[in-house]
Amino acid sequence: MYTIAVTNQKGGVGKTTIAMQVAAALSRRHRVLLIDTDPQRSTQWWAGNVARPLPFDYAGPQQPSVLARLPLLKVEYDFVFVDTPGSLEETRTLELVLDAADYALVPMTPEPLAVEPTMRTIHRLIEPRHLRYAIVLNKVDPRIPDQRDTWTHRLDADWGYPRTAETLRLYKAHADAPILGELVTAMPDNRRTAGLIGEVTRLALEVSTHVAATSAGVW
Ligand SMILES: Nc1ncnc2c1ncn2[C@@H]1O[C@H](COP(=O)(O)OP(=O)(O)OP(=O)(O)O)[C@@H](O)[C@H]1O
Ligand SMILES: [Mg+2]
């Protein structure tokens, strides 16, 4: 069982979106549990709009102490995703989640205001725990020339942070998904959604491979 914290102290970068959609994508082939530790309860509202059943097991909202009790559960999971709060007031929650995690997935938007909080999250909370992690660039706007290249170059060459090869574009379908109760496993596959479904599916495969490889020490 691998526990993946989806985390960034910057709000609105896509933690909830990525936790829900990547958990759904991995549930096609794996046993997945999603835990929400954010008092904002965004996943609860989303999950409430999904036509039942959810493709993964769902526990939210929870205190982070629930993570320590997971091994006692009778059910065994391949992946446990933890959605986390995006505010500085919740640092203690984040610390407890990261203490229990095997891997941190750090969504980041390609905007200057996201840089400092993302770096702070990595330097103060993730790296001191020697936790493997990767940034995933989210909300890349295809209408802005070179945005993806500029930001991947910054991450790779200027700052040297590990990142996923897959990046997620800005899609209205992502923004609509919580209210429509849509997850990649049950979205109509059409022009509105095809790009999104492909990106999330590839990201899920990449993350699952990373997590398993890093835990075996072969990153
Ligand atoms: N790739 C995307 N394209 C379009 N909209 C997106 C994308 N990713 C996220 N969004 C939208 O951006 C907003 C913020 O995303 P989300 O709630 O996932 O971020 P968050 O990091 O969980 O925020 P918080 O810190 O408040 O918990 C939401 O309205 C979401 O639907
Ligand atoms: Mg959220």
From TrEMBL:
Q: Which SUPFAM superfamilies match?
A: P-loop containing nucleoside triphosphate hydrolases (SSF52540)
- Record's Gene3D superfamilies? P-loop containing nucleotide triphosphate hydrolases
Q: Please give one Pfam family short name.
A: CbiA
Q: What name does UniProt use for this protein?
A: ParA family protein
The CobQ/CobB/MinD/ParA nucleotide binding domain is annotated at 4-145
This chain's source organism reads Microbacterium saccharophilum
List the lineage, top down. Bacteria, Bacillati, Actinomycetota, Actinomycetes, Micrococcales
Q: Per its UniProt entry, which superkingdom is the organism in?
A: Bacteria
> Which PANTHER family does the entry mention?
COBQ_COBB_MIND_PARA NUCLEOTIDE BINDING DOMAIN-CONTAINING PROTEIN, P-LOOP CONTAINING NUCLEOSIDE TRIPHOSPHATE HYDROLASE
